[in-house]
Specification:
Blueprint: E1 4-11, E2 15-23, E3 29-36, H1 37-43, H2 51-63, E4 74-76, H3 80-83, H4 87-91
Parallel strand pairs: 3-4
Antiparallel strand pairs: 1-2, 2-3
Length: 94
């Protein structure tokens, strides 16, 4: 079964606070992801990409590697690269 990813971004002083809900075979999972303006600029595929789109792509990346229940409940988007060094390269291709 494919997971459904829902993202809602709220602007903050540093960027966006994104509330993410993943629903799939393991039940719903909720996460809070902080995205800075520099994160969005660094990993966007298009000049007008939204934080919601970037976080959705990041969760697709994560879910290809681990179940939603294993993803941290709260983290900075840039933290993904610490755990998965290939994130930098692969997020641009998603």
């Amino acid at each position: 079964m494919t997971s459904m990813i829902s993202v809602e971004a709220v602007p903050t002083q540093r960027g966006w606070e994104c509330q993410v809900e993943v629903s799939g075979s393991g039940g719903p999972s909720r996460h809070s992801v902080r995205v800075s303006a520099s994160d969005l600029e660094r990993w966007s595929r298009a000049p007008a990409e939204t934080p919601e789109s970037l976080v959705t792509r990041a969760f697709e990346f994560l879910l290809a590697r681990e179940p939603a229940t294993q993803i941290l409940k709260s983290f900075e988007l840039a933290d993904i690269q610490r755990y998965f060094p290939e994130f930098e390269e692969e997020i641009r291709e998603r």
